[in-house]
């Protein structure tokens, strides 16, 4: 842990015991220093606000002991398993994994379609499924920017926020829709109320506004790469959040916006009463209907994101994104316009973030700046990295694991983050390229043989 | 100079700099259609800078670059490439995580052309470098150095270039592979009448291949002439060929 191991297994397998012991002692010392104040001394505010503290040296000793023993166990295990990454799976096992991998995506899709049927009675699980799907969509959106185009974006939540606030604000004020008049200048604008169609009209508008902000962010960062780009996008995310927080007149500041219109089934509201969706199809009203509808809505939005990404990857623009991730200089030499390539990646990624934001607003009915903190950006980025940059299935799996895992460990309370961090470290050791690090090629050979056959027919061959 | 009128590429008084360090101090160079021109010189002489400044990086501070009579000095890189000037950059710079097929496709993506023309270029590239045909579905990063160089040249050829710029194609390659690559360039020039500018440190190989050569020292062209003639000059032999034929 604290000491780098100089090739443990290969160098001297017998003389290693002293080394293991030394390493364990150092680890234990680090733990002692680290936990002395965190665990060794417990402080609390007393009844009249005075400081009460007491020592817990027993617990401290237990932790330090655990680190000491753990360090020895880990080092022994490492020697036993051998160097990380040196393990080759037999061909049959790998073949089995390949079949499993091919079946995984369709199986997940079918399961996703059936979620509201299976969990119809379990409101909590339905809510969780909607949350997971939202992050799947955000992950797929950010995947375009980070995974495909290789632009490290730490401020993705800004576009989520732009989408959410665009929808919330426009749903309240209406859109300036043009109509013809008799008098000069013959065209007038009115802030038209959208009624039950608010969501369906404003969803694309929110996406486009987010895309516009994607381009606005894209221009100043055209020349930046890697960590420099990350810092600027991080700042951009914070700027958007702070503007929302402080522009009280428009956004309501920290109080947020409430009373955001709920989505309708293409104009039919999901409400009790004779004009509601339930009455329309002749079933008794249940509040679960809305959850089911929201789930299918976000599933559809996410699948559109996925489909668009898969299509784009096979087009020159998607290939250019990936090539740009690999080598920007080479791209320029091949005649790729880096400016438009970058801006399009930012814009399209942001657009899907905006869609997800509009969905978030309509699902919650209330939004405030708290929902758009840096933590959200970090979470979505973690999903993309954990999933294996660029892999659609990997991102979906990572979103399920992260958001689902978060809920799973809710009982652990404040140790939740600790478990989460530990799992993440282990995963990055075992699968440094993410859950699914394999990149599916987009150009295949058979195309060529077809074309060359047609050439022969024309007499060129 | 009447040469500018007949040259495919004409460079006149080109100056370029990285910050305060002047890398090109007024360079004149001509490439006629159908010619192979070699540009040789020591490390840091400005050879690569000259090649890259054709693509606008670094941007010329003075002077002109004319391609087929058109001034391209101020054009952005992607528009230069669309005039069908292709480049195999120094260090190959293939896309390591993309397959060979995708790498080749990238070469054709940005330049206009019909599907049939692209298929024809692909046929040409694969005939020239049969090794790539065997490796079409392999990731670029898994190729050997020589194969990567073939891929870099093949990728450049996919845009059916009128002028091919090769930056150090022999860099880090075994002599046998270098010979294969140089013979492919000769084939392209003879059969497809491709015009080539080749930047090399391997002066012996490059000057034998080229119709004409330029020698660059400290950002200036100091000598020029037919390749074989340059090869005979004692000062060239002393400066670039000492240490044997593969020096």
Largest beta-sheet characterization of chain B: 6 strands, mixed
Residue windows where pLDDT falls under 50 for at least 5 positions of chain B: 243-247
CATH class wording of chain B: Alpha Beta
Assigned CATH superfamily of chain B: P-loop containing nucleotide triphosphate hydrolases
Total individual domains of chain A: 2
Largest interface, Cβ cutoff 8 Å: A-B, 30 and 39 residues
Radius of gyration of CA atoms of chain B, rounded to a whole number: 17 Å
Low-confidence stretches of chain A: 1-15, 445-461
Quaternary organisation = heterodimer
Q: What is the approximate shape of chain A?
A: globular
Polypeptide structure, described:
- The complex is a heterodimer of chains A (461) and B (247).
- Chain A is mainly alpha-helical and 461 residues long.
- Chain A folds into two domains: 8-81, no CATH class; 123-372, no CATH class.
- Chain A is built from 18 helices and eight strands.
- In chain A, a hairpin with a 6-residue loop joins strand 3 (175-180) and strand 4 (187-192).
- In chain A, helix 5 (123-148) runs parallel beside helix 11 and helix 6 (157-173) packs across helix 7.
- The longest helix of chain A is centred in the N-terminal third of the chain and has 28 residues, at 91-118.
- Chain A is globular and about 95 Å long.
- Chain A starts with 7 loop residues before the first helix and ends with a helix.
- Residues 1-15 and 445-461 of chain A have low confidence and may be disordered.
- A six-stranded mixed β-sheet of chain B has the order 6-7-8-3-9-10, sandwiched between helices.
- Chain B has helices at residues 3-6, 47-54, 77-82, 100-109, 115-128, 130-134, 145-157, 175-192, 203-209, 227-232, 234-240, and strands at residues 7-18, 21-32, 36-41, 62-67, 70-71, 85-88, 163-167, 195-200, 212-217, 220-226.
- In chain B, helix 4 runs parallel beside helix 7 (145-157).
- Chain B starts with a helix and ends in a 7-residue tail after the last helix.
- Helices cover 40% and strands 27% of the residues of chain B.
- In chain B, helix 8 links the parallel strand 7 and strand 8.
- Chain B is of the alpha/beta class.
- Chain B has one domain: P-loop containing nucleotide triphosphate hydrolases (Rossmann fold), CATH 3.40.50.
- Residues 243-247 of chain B have low confidence and may be disordered.
- Chain B has eleven helices and ten strands.
- The chains are: A mainly alpha (461), B alpha/beta (247).
């Amino acid at each position: 842990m604290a000491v780098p191991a100089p090739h443990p297994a290969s160098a001297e397998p017998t003389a290693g015991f002293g080394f293991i012991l030394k390493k364990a002692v150092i680890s234990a010392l680090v733990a002692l220093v680290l936990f002395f104040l965190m665990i060794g001394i417990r402080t609390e505010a007393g009844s009249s606000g005075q400081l009460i503290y007491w020592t817990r040296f027993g617990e401290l000793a237990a932790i330090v002991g655990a680190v000491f023993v753990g360090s020895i166990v880990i080092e022994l295990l490492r020697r036993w398993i051998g160097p990380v990454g040196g393990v080759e799976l037999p061909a049959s096992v790998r073949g089995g994994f390949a079949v499993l991998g091919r079946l995984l995506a369709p199986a997940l899709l079918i399961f996703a379609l059936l979620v509201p049927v299976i969990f119809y009675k379990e409101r909590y699980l339905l809510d969780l499924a909607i949350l997971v799907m939202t992050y799947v969509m955000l992950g797929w959106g950010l995947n375009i920017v980070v995974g495909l185009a290789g632009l490290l974006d730490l401020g993705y939540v800004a576009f989520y926020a732009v989408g959410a606030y665009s929808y919330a604000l426009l749903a309240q004020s209406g859109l300036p829709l043009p109509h013809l008049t008799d008098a000069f200048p013959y065209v007038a604008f009115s802030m038209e109320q959208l009624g039950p169609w608010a969501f369906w009209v404003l969803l694309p508008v929110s996406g486009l506004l987010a895309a516009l902000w994607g381009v606005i962010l894209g221009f100043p960062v055209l020349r930046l790469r890697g960590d420099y780009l990350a810092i600027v996008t991080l700042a951009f995310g914070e700027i958007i959040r702070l503007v929302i927080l402080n522009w009280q007149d428009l956004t309501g500041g920290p109080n947020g916006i409430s009373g955001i219109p709920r989505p309708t089934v293409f104009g039919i509201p999901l409400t009790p009463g004779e004009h509601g969706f339930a009455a329309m199809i002749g079933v008794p009203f249940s509040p679960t209907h809305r959850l089911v509808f929201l789930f299918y809505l976000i599933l559809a939005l996410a699948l559109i994101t996925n489909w668009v990404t898969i299509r784009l990857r096979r087009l020159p623009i998607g290939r250019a994104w990936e090539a740009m991730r690999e080598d920007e200089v080479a791209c320029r030499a091949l005649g790729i316009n880096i400016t438009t390539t970058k801006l399009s990646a930012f814009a399209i990624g942001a657009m899907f973030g905006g869609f997800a934001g509009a969905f978030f607003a309509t699902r919650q009915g209330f939004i405030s700046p708290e929902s758009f903190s840096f933590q959200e950006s970090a979470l979505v980025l973690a999903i993309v990295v954990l999933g294996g940059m660029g892999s659609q299935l990997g991102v979906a799996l990572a979103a399920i694991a992260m958001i689902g895992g978060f809920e799973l460990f809710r009982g652990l309370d404040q140790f939740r983050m600790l478990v989460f961090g530990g799992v993440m470290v282990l995963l990055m050791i075992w699968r440094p390229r993410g859950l699914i690090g394999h990149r599916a090629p987009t150009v295949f050979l058979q195309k060529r043989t077809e074309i060359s056959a047609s050439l022969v027919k024309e007499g060129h061959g | 100079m009447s040469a500018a009128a007949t040259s495919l590429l004409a460079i006149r008084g080109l100056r370029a700099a990285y910050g305060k360090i002047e890398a090109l101090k007024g360079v004149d160079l001509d490439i006629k259609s159908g010619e192979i021109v070699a540009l040789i010189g020591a490390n840091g002489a400005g050879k690569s800078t000259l090649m890259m400044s054709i693509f606008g990086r670094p941007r010329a501070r003075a002077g002109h670059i004319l391609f087929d009579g058109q001034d391209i000095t101020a054009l952005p890189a992607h528009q230069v490439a669309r005039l069908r000037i292709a480049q195999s950059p120094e260090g190959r710079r293939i896309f390591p995580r993309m397959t060979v097929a995708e790498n080749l496709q990238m070469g054709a993506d940005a330049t206009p052309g019909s599907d049939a023309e692209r298929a024809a270029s692909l046929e040409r590239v694969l005939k020239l470098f049969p090794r790539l045909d065997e490796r079409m579905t392999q990731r670029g990063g898994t190729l050997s150095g020589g194969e990567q160089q073939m891929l870099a040249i093949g990728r450049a050829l996919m845009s059916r270039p009128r002028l091919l710029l090769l930056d150090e194609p022999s860099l880090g390659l075994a002599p046998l592979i270098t010979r294969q690559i140089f013979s492919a360039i000769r084939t392209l020039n003879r059969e497809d009448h491709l015009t080539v500018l080749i930047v090399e440190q391997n002066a012996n190989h490059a000057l034998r291949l080229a119709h004409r050569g330029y020698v660059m020292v400290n950002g200036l062209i100091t000598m020029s002439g037919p390749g074989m003639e340059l090869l005979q000059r004692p000062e060239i032999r002393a400066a670039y060929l000492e240490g044997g034929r593969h020096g």
